[in-house]
Amino acid sequence: MAATWPTSLQQCLNQGDFSEAPKDTNIYTQPETGATKRRRRFTKQEVNLTASIIVNAAQYTTFKNFVEVTLKDRINPFDFEHPITGEAKVYKLAGPENIQPHGALTWRVSMQWIQVIT
Fold first, then answer.
1. Beta partners for 107?
2. What are the residue ranges spanned by the domains of the chain?
3. Per residue in 86-103, is it b (16+ CB within 10 Å) or e — as a string?
4. Residue 33 phi, psi (nearest 5)
5. CA pair distance 109, 85, nearest whole angstrom
6. Cβ atoms of residues 46 and 102 within 8 Å
7. How far apart (Å, rounded) are the C-alpha atoms in residues 52 and 18?
8. What single DSSP character describes residue 67?
9. Are 18 and 47 in contact, with CB atoms under 8 Å apart?
């Protein structure tokens, strides 16, 4: 079962840093003669997302606790609404987050997510 994204953290991702990149599900075969053949390898497509949120010091502590304890250092998945469709989806953090100053006492947390195929 996926963890629940903390309610004290930003519930909408920053639009300016958001991107979505579906992975190619096709496999390509080059026969001895003729054009390259292409077929589906999987019936469902994995999707990578780039996301960011803005946090204050208290939210930073909540986020770090969520990642380290609840997600067991990015092993466990979590629930989050898809930023475009609003559908409930399950994601995993793909790697370490990047923390940068954003403003007076706020920081931008940039992350890579992978949509879990269910």
1. 55, 101
2. 4-8+14-115
3. eeebbbbbeeebeeeebe
4. -135, 150
5. 22
6. no
7. 7
8. I
9. no
CA distances for 105 relative to 14, 58, 95, angstroms: 18, 10, 25
Q: Is 16 helix (H, G, I), strand (E, B) or coil?
A: helix
Q: pLDDT tens-digit profile of 40-88?
A: 776 777 889 999 999 999 999 999 999 999 999 999 999 999 999 999 9
Q: Measured in whole angstroms, how far is the alpha carbon of residue 50 from the centre of its chain?
A: 6
Write phi, then psi, for 115 (nearest 5 degrees). -75, 125
What is the bridge-based pairing of β-strands 3-4 and 37-40?
Answer: unpaired
One-letter amino acid of 75: I
User: Is residue 40 helix, strand or coil?
Assistant: strand
Give tens-digit pLDDT for 8-43.
999 999 999 999 988 877 788 888 888 888 877 767
